Structures
1.
Amino acid sequence: METPKPRVAVHKFSSCDGCQLALLNLGEDLLTLAERVELVHFAEAGPLDPDTEVDVAFVEGSVSTPEDIERIQHIRQHSRLLIAIGACATAGGIQALRNGADGAQWIAQIYSHPEAISSLAQSTPIASHVKVDFELWGCPVSGVQMLAVVNSLLLGVAPRDNADKVCTECKRNGYPCVMVSRGIACMGPVTRAGCGALCPGLGRDCYGCYGPAENANTDALAAQFASLGLTPLDIVQRFQSINSQAPVFLAAADKLRMRGDG
Ligand code: SF4
Ligand code: SF4
Ligand code: SF4
């Protein structure tokens, strides 16, 4: 008798869909994957069955509405493994910039009918609400990384997490360092690898979209940024960007603020 294929779902919460697109953009590789797993729910690609039991649930997006809280708990109860994908799901995303602001005031200023908006005061990562088995960082994640995770799971091994720094990928690729050679402030020394040092490879700085690397020395980088002429507020804003709720970046910004530096 044929062994049943693992059942996989891809769910969206508050997000821009970019991480789902990264999976769709795999093209032929996605078709090959679809032969090895049963894609039971992936609204962007077609299949719709959000309530069914699955072996693996990929979750894109942050928890930003009261409805999101109920939905993520339901998904957790019906999924053997839950994998958070992208900066929104792992660190609240760009929408978490409202966490330090008066969100209700923003809603009143932006929408003609603010009473129609049901939104939580904070945008939070998936792991703040349910157990997450693995996190893939990035904005967006790369399809190749997602494929590697699925392949590991199909082989029954734990997915690998590359928590090294973007600088290591720069060196491996032979890219000139934009911070050393051109004095451009770069977040690479504290940012998690995985993108292949995409931005420095194009001659620009890394802005930290893959979230904090392991053993990130944020104090040293903040001092380096100051020596390059960034103001304290500039430095706080570097840490409070796409991954603002990542504890390491949050702590770095809080430390600067407590010193009165921004
Ligand atoms: S992590 Fe970035 S690309 Fe992915 S859904 Fe969020 S905003 Fe979009
Ligand atoms: S360009 Fe940025 S990521 Fe690359 S080596 Fe320099 S500091 Fe590190
Ligand atoms: S270099 Fe930095 S900002 Fe650019 S894609 Fe990689 S992690 Fe993101």
Note: The chain has a mean pLDDT of 93.
2.
Amino acid sequence: MEVILSEYLGFCYGVKRAIKLAEEHADGKSWTLGPIIHNPQMVERLQAEGVGTVTDLTALEEGTIIIRSHGVGPQVYKEAQAKGLKIVDATCPHVKKAQMSAKELSEDGRQVVIVGEKNHPEVKSIFEWSNKQAIILETEADAENFAPRSKLGIISQTTVSGENFVKIVAHLLEKSHDIRILRTICTATEQRQKAALELAGQVDVMLVIGGRNSANTTRLAQLCEKKCRTYHIETATELSPVWLENANKVGITAGASTPDWIIGEVYKKCQRI
Ligand code: SF4
């Protein structure tokens, strides 16, 4: 049985940067605001190294607050500053660009539209920077039902698929005569999706590794399912040898928040089967 790793998989630039910043501040007095990435194993590891997790700033009176790669709204910076906390900003520069685009479009008097998932923390943070006025569209149906506006400003969640973005924008083009479109999709996501789809078309089984709460990992699994039998797992222990019976080729991909050591364990287990 041949085991093939996708050309692009695992940690992206923004996540690597966030983990590095968190590790540099592992002093027992640092906390990330929400889990640093959507990967429980990595969160546990950081906890053991001295970086805890808090859900909000209420209980913190001192120490360092680490803003994760998804970013937060302006209010959180103000609150942290008012409490005298040290801020380590690990917001991914691509997310920062989307946030600043939301701010700019809103200040330009446009109705801001974010193409993305309503409940995703990154989208929530971008929304906050739009002066909390953005409208979030997830589907083509949402865009079809969108009421016409005089001035529109369209941006995207960084992990949205390019295909979906174009489809939604096509509907919105009919809704205003004055539209600015800032395509804030991150290439890391597209690279991983493209490479995974290509590999899924060449193998019998795909293994997609990553947290179940990771939107980009779930999206990778959905794409691969279109091409071959696909299993979404968090770690090597979940991998059942039965899945690989009669498979000549097995492909492996992993979400942008999946650590290398977990990918390595799955790869080695496949080779042993
Ligand atoms: S997927 Fe892209 S936008 Fe998101 S953290 Fe990674 S590099 Fe940044």
Note: The two ends are 9 Å apart (CA to CA).
3.
Amino acid sequence: MGISFFGLIIVVGLAVIFGLVKGISAMLGLFKSAQGGHAMLACPTCGQQTSHANGRCDACGAEL
Ligand SMILES: [Zn+2]
């Protein structure tokens, strides 16, 4: 009885930890994708929407 009780606690604990890790990594993935290469900003030089991944405006080539 004792072994199955602790086994159940371990299984539930692992499931909770697994769920937390999955949730945290999903949240981090969302956060990363919100900040990452898909983020667009308006170029201060020409006003075009551009990705700041390469540090330069895609439209006019000015430094961002
Ligand atoms: Zn520009």
Note: The CA atoms of residues 4 and 10 lie 10 Å apart.
